[in-house]
Specification:
Elements (H helix, E strand, L loop, with lengths): L1 E5 L3 H15 L5 E5 L11 E4 L2 E4 L5 E2 L4 H8 L6 E3 L7 E5 L2 E4 L4 E2 L2 E2 L2 H6 L5 H9 L15 H9 L1 H16 L8 H4 L1 H9 L3 H18 L2 H4 L8 E4 L4 H9 L6 E2 L4 E6 L4 E5 L2 E5 L1 E4 L3 H8 L4 H8 L3 E12 L11 E3 L8 E6 H4 L8 E9 L11 H16 L12 E12 L5 H13 L4 E3 L9 H16 L14
Parallel strand pairs: 1-2, 1-16, 2-12, 7-18, 16-22
Antiparallel strand pairs: 3-4, 5-11, 6-11, 7-8, 9-10, 13-14, 14-15, 17-20, 17-21, 18-19, 19-20
Helix pairs in contact: 1-17, 2-17, 5-6, 8-9, 12-13, 13-16
Length: 489
């Protein structure tokens, strides 16, 4: 069986790795991985500058989703897994140029502790009263149409909670707008809690109690002394380590870099892929490219499928890494960094204090700030020069953190600017219905699989899971080749 993989990001690499495993196990499988760029890995890219690991794209993955850590261990990177420094975790929201810490007890946008919520300066007295009265909200009927995250949060906690909590948190994750993101897809637990309990606070408290009961009923001996799992996990040398380890496991003869696919055709016996002037037959195709790119190619095979894929919105982003001599900065606030609400009118969406979040990836005495710009509301920023973008970040850092922390005349030791155009899928209202329609169209095209961040999770673990799943399904259809030694053939 010959399988084409279109897209060499983490989903495509995970699919190729799974096919290599199948080949080693004796399956009659060959593949060709097409990547339009000159490098593999997509937005996973790292650079080490004077001992400081600088991430150009994602810097880590959620620990609770196991697919990424499992793959790292398979690749021999288990010792390189680095937990986030959760003992020092504190996140701030910028409100009128002041940093206000998120209150203790906040769970999935839901305040669960009375005193921290009452004392925080993040919300007005009116919003705090509304949060208290939220406990009285009755259950909501099930089966109602999907709605935006902003609508769900505002119904329970008010518009200020959307502005200062939901929108900046989700903008930092998705680069999107809470008024457009699907509540059913992005926050399914809250939608379920609203149906069962009405009050999200009561639902979250009940879920927390259930978790504690399950933990106490589990094997106490095996859990005794076990440290809590970190929220995030990174790689000591950067996410590029994962890309490099995957590429090392692949047969170079099957990798086609700087080879964009120009067209794809469904044939009687399979598929034909045209790229770089060559037209090749395949039994199956895995699209691991962005949905908009897949839609352009597949629209000639199935117009409706192409339109559905093309309708999935995407946002763009810019990351700016600034490296400083920490001794020259002056005092910094504790914690991991801050988020910026859209109402503040700033270019920055968020800023991470990298040297605090992951210990050991920055040399002693150095501070690394990682700023995020762009998002669904400010795509035009991507057209700015590196110098202009760095100047914006430096000015806004100075205004938010104060002149004593970062002076406008203090030159960073290193500046790194990365642009990611149309890279982050946006799960808009109705996303689940759209992906169901897409799945129905794909089911009518034998040998076609879709993987990537546009369908069932935007994070690294989700992309890995979907890429490997697609490859396993197709490899299972290949006939075994008996008595062949393992390894590349």
């Amino acid at each position: 069986m010959r399988i084409a993989i279109i897209g060499g990001g983490i989903a495509g690499l995970a699919a190729a790795y799974e096919l290599e495993k199948a080949r080693a196990a004796g399956a009659d499988v060959e593949y060709a991985l097409y990547e339009a760029c000159e490098r593999l890995g997509g937005s996973l890219a790292s650079e080490t500058v004077n001992g400081a690991v600088l991430e150009q794209g994602p810097d880590s993955f959620l620990t609770e989703k196991p697919a990424a850590a499992e793959l790292c261990r398979e690749l021999g990177l288990g010792a390189e897994l680095l937990p986030s420094n959760d003992a020092a975790r504190k996140t701030y929201i910028v409100v009128r140029n002041r940093l206000i810490a998120l209150p203790d007890g906040l769970m999935f946008l839901v305040p669960t502790k009375l005193i921290p919520t009452a004392l925080t300066r993040l919300f007005s007295l009116t919003t705090k009263v509304r949060m208290g009265l939220e406990l009285l909200i009755p259950p909501r009927p099930s089966g109602l149409p999907d709605e935006a995250v902003a609508a769900l949060v505002e119904r329970h906690f008010g518009a200020e909670a959307v502005d200062r909590l939901a929108d900046p948190l989700l903008s930092g994750i998705y680069g999107g707008d809470a008024a457009q993101l699907s509540a059913r897809t992005v926050l399914p637990r809250l939608v379920e809690m609203e149906t069962q309990y009405g009050s999200l606070t009561r639902g979250m408290l009940a879920a927390h109690r259930q978790m504690r009961v399950r933990a106490s009923n589990s094997s106490k001996e095996s859990n005794r002394g076990a440290a809590p799992r970190p929220i995030f996990t990174a790689l000591r040398g950067g996410m590029q380590q994962l890309v490099d380890a995957l590429v090392d496991r692949l047969d170079p003869a099957f990798l086609r870099l700087a080879t964009p696919v120009s067209s794809i055709e469904k044939t009687t016996n399979g598929w034909r892929v045209e790229a770089a002037g060559a037209n090749e037959p395949f039994d199956a195709v895995i699209f691991a490219s962005p949905a908009w790119a897949a839609g352009t190619l597949l629209g000639k095979v199935d117009l409706e499928l192409g339109e559905e894929l093309g309708a999935i919105p995407y946002s763009s982003s810019v990351t700016v890494n600034l490296v400083y001599d920490e001794a020259r900065l002056g005092p910094l606030p504790d914690g991991f960094g801050f988020l910026v609400p859209a109402s503040e009118g700033r270019a920055m969406l968020a800023c991470t204090f990298v040297h605090r979040k992951f210990l050991g990836r920055t040399p002693p005495g150095k501070a690394v700030f990682r700023a995020f710009l762009g998002g669904i509301r400010n795509e035009a920023l991507l057209n700015g020069t590196d110098e202009a973008l760095a100047a914006i970040v430096r000015r806004e850092l100075s205004e938010i953190l104060g002149e004593k922390t970062i002076g406008l005349n203090l030159e960073p030791e290193h500046i790194q600017v990365s642009r990611w155009r149309r890279a982050m899928a946006q799960y808009a209202v109705g996303h689940q219905d759209r992906t169901a329609r897409i799945a129905a169209r794909v089911a009518n095209l034998p040998g076609l699989r879709l993987a990537g961040n546009a369908y069932d999770g935007i994070g690294i673990p989700d992309c890995i899971r979907l890429g490997r799943k697609a490859a396993k399904e197709l490899a299972a259809l290949a006939a075994p080749v008996p008595n062949l030694p393992p390894g590349p053939r």
